[in-house]
Write a structure and sequence with these properties.
Blueprint lengths: L12 H18 L3 H7 L4 H9 L18 H12 L8 H14 L2 H13 L4 E4 L15 E5 L2 E12 L6 E7 L9 E7 L6 E6 L10 E12 L11 H37 L1 E2 L2 E2 L4 H30 L4 H25 L10 H9 L9 H12 L2
Parallel strand pairs: 1-4
Antiparallel strand pairs: 2-3, 3-7, 4-5, 6-7, 8-9
Length: 385
C-alpha cells in the first residue's frame, strides 16, 4: 500500500524514504498498542515522544524551529502511514494543523517557543473552535477574550475538541470584538499547564475513534498574555481559519485513503481464508466484483489526492477543490467500509475484527472539518459565479 501514484509530480526520493521509515514505525510502535489505547481512551504520551524522536511530526517545520525543513508532503506521508495501519486514534492530524497555523501566522517568538516542542512530542496541540451552540458556523462563536492590561481574559466553553485531554497548547477561537461578527474573531494560544480557570471536562464517549481523547473545555476568566495572540493583529481569526481549512480537509481525505487501503487489504485476506459452501469466499463472483469496485474507487481517490497535493505544493489548491477531496474521500470511505464489513459476515460485527472499528471510525469523517453538506455548498458556490 502506498499514498503515491506512479506519476505523482510532488513526490521526491526523500518522501519515499520518509514513507518507508514511517511505515516501519507504525508497524512496530502503533499496531501493538491499538487495542489498549482504545480501552483507555487515549494514546500514551510516550508514543508522542517516540514519534517526535523519529522526526515524524517535524517533516514540514523549518530547521530553525526544530524541524527538518521539508514540505507538507511529509505530513501527508505520516497521516497516510498512520491510517493505512488501521489507526485513527493518534491525534497527529490536529497536531499538524496547529503546527501550520503557527508556521503561517505565529510571531517569531511563538515559533521558537512552541514549534520545537510540537515537533518533539513534548507538547500536544489542539484547536478549539466548536462550541455547544455552534459547529460549522464559526462566526457565531460566543467565547470571549477581553483585554485586561497586557493580558486577555478568556471566558467560554468548547466541545468535541480532539486531543482535548492531552493538549498542552490550545489555539482558541474567541471574540476579541463582540460587535464585529466574523471580523471580531481572533485565535489565542493557551498553554494549559498552570492556567488558572482552565478546566478539561470528561473524555467524551464516542461511536468511533475511541483511542483519540475528545473533550469539553472550559475557560473561566483564564488570563493569557496578549503576546499569545496568533497573528499581528486582532480580528484575523476567521480569515486565518478559512485559509488553513484546505489543509485540514486534505488531512481528512488522506485518512480516508489510508483507512480504505487497510480495509481492502484486510478484506482480501479474510475472503481468501474464509470458506463457504466448499469454496473460498473470494471465489464468489459477488465478492470479486465488490472488491473490484472498492479497489477502483480507492485508486480514483488516490489519483485525485496526489493531484491535490501537487496543487498544495504549488500554492494553487483552492477551497472548493479541497472541499471536493474531503467530501468525496469521506463518502467513499464510508461506502467501502460498509461493503467490506458485509463481506466479513457476522464476524464483521465483532469488535475483535478491525473492520468493525474501521466502520465506526469512518462515520465522523463526513461531519468534522465542516460537514459534507457544507462542503457541497462551498463547491456549488465555486460554480455559481
Amino acid at each position: 500500500m502506498s499514498l503515491f501514484t506512479s506519476s505523482a509530480s510532488w513526490v521526491t526520493e526523500e518522501h519515499r524514504m520518509f514513507a518507508e521509515m514511517a511505515d516501519r514505525f507504525m508497524q512496530d510502535e502503533l499496531v501493538p498498542n491499538e487495542e489498549r489505547w482504545n480501552d483507555q481512551g487515549m494514546v500514551d504520551r510516550a508514543f508522542w515522544q517516540k514519534a517526535g524522536e523519529m522526526g515524524l511530526m517535524a517533516g514540514s517545520i523549518a530547521e530553525e524551529h526544530g524541524g527538518v525543513g521539508g514540505d507538507l508532503g511529509f505530513d501527508a506521508v505520516t497521516l497516510y502511514a498512520q491510517s493505512s495501519h488501521g489507526n485513527c486514534g493518534w491525534g497527529y492530524p490536529i497536531q499538524s494543523i496547529v503546527i501550520h497555523y503557527l508556521m503561517a501566522y505565529g510571531s517569531e517568538e511563538q515559533k521558537q517557543k512552541w514549534l520545537p516542542k510540537l515537533a518533539s512530542g513534548e507538547m500536544v496541540g489542539a484547536l478549539a473552535m466548536t462550541e455547544p451552540g455552534t459547529g460549522s458556523d464559526v462566526q457565531a462563536i460566543r467565547t470571549t477574550a477581553d483585554k485586561d492590561g497586557n493580558s486577555y481574559r478568556l471566558n467560554g466553553s468548547k466541545i468535541f475538541i480532539t486531543n482535548g485531554q492531552s493538549a498542552d497548547l490550545i489555539l482558541v477561537a474567541a471574540k476579541t470584538d463582540k460587535s464585529q461578527g466574523s471580523k471580531g474573531v481572533s485565535l489565542i494560544a493557551v498553554e494549559t499547564e498552570g492556567a488558572d480557570g482552565f478546566r478539561k471536562g470528561r473524555n467524551l464517549k464516542k461511536l468511533g475513534m475511541k483511542a483519540n481523547d475528545t473533550a469539553e473545555l472550559y475557560f473561566e476568566n483564564v488570563k493569557v498574555p496578549m503576546t499569545n495572540l496568533v497573528g499581528p493583529e486582532e480580528g484575523q481569526g476567521f480569515y486565518q481559519m478559512m485559509k488553513q481549512l484546505p489543509w485540514e480537509r486534505l488531512t481528512i481525505a488522506l485518512i480516508a485513503l489510508g483507512s480504505i487501503d487497510f480495509a481492502i487489504a484486510e478484506t482480501v485476506r479474510y475472503t481468501q481464508e474464509r470458506k463457504a459452501f466448499g469454496q473460498r469466499v473470494m471465489d464468489f463472483q459477488n465478492t470479486r466484483f465488490k472488491l473490484a469496485e472498492c479497489k477502483t474507487k480507492a485508486e480514483v481517490l488516490r489519483s485525485f489526492l496526489n493531484d491535490c497535493l501537487a496543487q498544495l505544493q504549488a500554492g494553487t489548491l483552492d477551497a472548493a477543490t479541497a472541499s471536493m477531496a474531503k467530501y468525496w474521500g469521506s463518502e467513499i470511505q464510508n461506502e467501502i467500509m460498509g461493503e467490506c464489513l458485509q463481506l466479513f459476515g457476522g464476524y464483521g460485527f465483532m469488535m475483535e475484527y478491525p473492520i468493525a472499528r474501521l466502520y465506526a471510525d469512518a462515520r465522523v469523517q463526513t461531519i468534522y472539518g465542516g460537514t459534507n453538506e457544507i462542503m457541497k455548498e462551498l463547491i456549488a458556490r465555486s460554480l455559481d459565479k
